[in-house]
Design goal:
Layout: H1 4-75, H2 85-103, E1 109-116, H3 118-121, E2 126-130, E3 139-140, H4 146-149, H5 154-166, E4 170-176, E5 183-193, E6 196-206, H6 207-215, E7 218-219, E8 223-228, E9 234-236, H7 257-260, E10 270-274, E11 277-285, E12 291-297, H8 298-301, H9 303-329, H10 335-349, H11 364-390, H12 401-417, E13 423-429, H13 432-439, H14 441-458, E14 464-466, E15 471-476, H15 478-482, H16 484-491, E16 511-517, H17 526-544
Antiparallel strand pairs: 1-2, 1-6, 2-3, 4-5, 5-6, 7-8, 8-9, 8-12, 10-11, 11-12, 13-15, 13-16, 14-15
Helix pairs in contact: 1-2, 1-9, 1-10, 1-11, 9-11, 10-11, 13-14
């Protein structure tokens, strides 16, 4: 005959083991969910950061070409006027000045041109200016005789015939220009007057500039950036170096068709395999339809998850065994205290780690309550440690891009509520590339750490974020905000050119800095304040840069 005690033991042991397994399973799910969110924020944040650097090149190029095209459509009243060479020359002079003034300040622009319809001009006419890179000025280039080459010479004349066929402005996909051998992408607009085609105007962007920026993208340990259109068309990839006909990476991402149709992954990730390695990527889309992706091996992205799951399972086993042992010893006194413990375990299974058991009896039930309180404390500590690791820059130990994105979101909420009062300090380490090239990346890391420590010492009450390879942002609130001008004067002492010939130049503090203060009358978002600080920093950096 089964006794009441044995029944209690059977029920209590079964409940304890079941709750332990439920707790373990729910904890594993929560850890997996949190790690996935952190990874998505990290990769999407890095893609968005590079997007804000490069996409303005496309937008400004479109605006300039449309302005030039509209100017010609307005100036030319009759297409037959363009048969007069003197008239074309006067029009060219006006357009040339406008083109140059608008285009010269845009990094990445390799050339700009105006080419008349040769059926009207009777001969190749217009202008074409190009430059080697942004350090050089534009120089006049020989006009391409498009009719002589014909429509089949795609690498020489596609910029002329394709918009003529489609009768609309458009971006051409990356190609190697057969007229100067430069790899570029082009935005071109056909110009019509009274329905008759009279000319094309366009801007060439040096594709290598984009590749250099994307090629410098890093994520986790082995992550990288690349440019693509879909799962089968890749414009740049570290393994293929871009635009090589025999490069077929086989990304296996076509099963993510719904996400690929969007302009960005936003807070999601695309999981796929590359060379047999599970990967995850985030992307955003430039104005010309080209997608910027950043990807990393799944093992690196979720490295912390394995450790956390192991710890959760270990804790689950310990809790399960401990609960069973305590149940055996306390079966005669377990009824009422067990109700409290069971309720606490259910809360724990829902991820409510802040509950505390108040039972203080000096017996087995009291011990079980204490163990469960310890377990909740460990879970709070483990989750807190995981979040800290996710929001901390590994090299400098300051906050990283994920923490920065969260802070930006909070500030935008305060701005919307009319409660914001802050300033942004942008600090950029000078000559990091030269230190890396001459003395190695280890010395470059020392230079970054040295600058970071100096900035942290000045801004003791403000968070410091590393948002790029050599870029730091300090967001001033409270005491540092009140003393912002005095503190920034101290930061300006860092503004100098690094003496690369000195002993151990990587220990020198050499940076450029800019500060902007939130103004509720003109700043609708945090980005407006950041842009001013970044522009001021860049202006100082330009003044410090050695002249070639």
């Amino acid at each position: 005959m089964q006794t009441i005690r044995s029944r209690f033991l059977t029920i209590i042991c079964g409940v304890s083991l079941t709750l332990s397994m439920v707790f373990g399973a729910l904890a594993v799910i929560l850890v997996d969910h949190d790690e996935t969110i952190i990874a998505a924020r990290t990769l999407n944040g890095q893609a968005a950061h590079v997007y804000t650097t490069l996409n303005p090149i496309f937008i400004q190029s479109e605006d300039i070409v449309h302005y030039i095209g509209n100017t010609i459509e307005h100036e030319v009243k009759d297409p037959q006027e363009l048969r007069d060479k003197a008239y074309r020359d006067r029009l060219e002079d006006k357009v040339r000045r406008s083109f140059y003034n608008a285009i010269s300040g845009i990094d990445g622009v390799q050339g700009y041109y105006l080419h008349y319809n040769e059926d009207i001009s009777g001969t190749p006419d217009g202008f074409w200016y190009a430059r080697r890179n942004s350090r050089y000025d534009f120089t006049i280039q020989p006009i391409t005789p498009v009719k002589a080459y014909g429509e089949k010479a795609v690498n020489r004349t596609n910029w002329y015939y394709r918009p003529l066929r489609t009768k609309q402005a458009q971006w051409l996909e990356p190609y190697i220009n057969g007229n100067n051998g430069v790899r570029m992408i082009t935005y071109v607009m056909p110009i019509f007057v009274k329905g008759q085609f009279v000319a094309v105007a366009g801007v060439d962007i040096d594709f290598n500039v984009l590749c250099d920026v994307v090629g410098a993208m890093k994520a986790y340990q082995d992550g990288y950036g690349f440019l693509f259109k879909d799962g089968q068309t890749v414009y740049f990839h570290p393994d293929g170096k871009g635009i090589e006909p025999d490069f077929n990476p086989d990304f296996m991402i076509l099963q993510n068709g719904d996400l690929l149709q969007r302009s960005a992954t936003e807070q999601k990730l695309i999981h796929y395999e590359y060379k047999g390695i599970p990967m995850a990527l985030a992307f955003t889309t430039f104005r010309n339809g080209m997608k910027l992706a950043i990807t990393a091996p799944a093992d690196e992205i979720y490295a912390g998850r394995r450790t956390m799951i192991f710890l959760v399972l270990a804790i689950t086993i310990v809790v399960g065994l401990g609960s069973t042992i305590l149940a055996v010893k306390a079966a005669d006194r377990i009824v009422r205290p067990l109700q409290d413990i069971s309720a606490a375990a259910r809360r724990l299974g829902r991820g409510e780690y802040d509950q505390h058991l108040t039972y203080t009896g000096h017996d087995e039930i009291g011990s079980l309550a204490s163990h469960m309180n310890d377990t909740m404390e460990r879970m709070r500590n483990y989750v807190g440690a995981m979040q800290k690791q996710a929001y901390q820059d590994e090299l400098t130990s300051v906050k990283n891009v994920a923490a920065y994105d969260k802070k930006v979101y909070d500030l935008n909420q305060k701005i919307s509520a009319g409660q914001a009062a802050f300033a942004v300090v942008m600090v950029d380490l000078n000559q990091l590339k030269e230190v890396n090239d001459r003395f190695g990346h280890e010395k470059g890391n020392i230079a970054l750490q040295t600058l970071c420590r100096a900035v942290c010492r000045l801004y003791k009450h403000s968070p410091v974020y590393r948002i790029g390879g050599d870029e730091f942002v300090v967001i001033l609130e409270g005491e540092d905000y009140d003393n912002r001008d005095a503190l920034f004067q101290k930061v300006q002492a860092f503004e100098r050119i690094r003496d690369l010939k000195a002993a151990q130049p990587w220990t020198q503090i050499a940076a450029s800095a800019g500060m902007a203060v939130y103004d509720k009358n003109c700043d609708a978002t945090y980005q407006a304040v950041f842009n001013r600080a970044d522009a001021r920093m860049y202006e100082k950096k330009q003044h410090l840069a050695p002249r070639s």
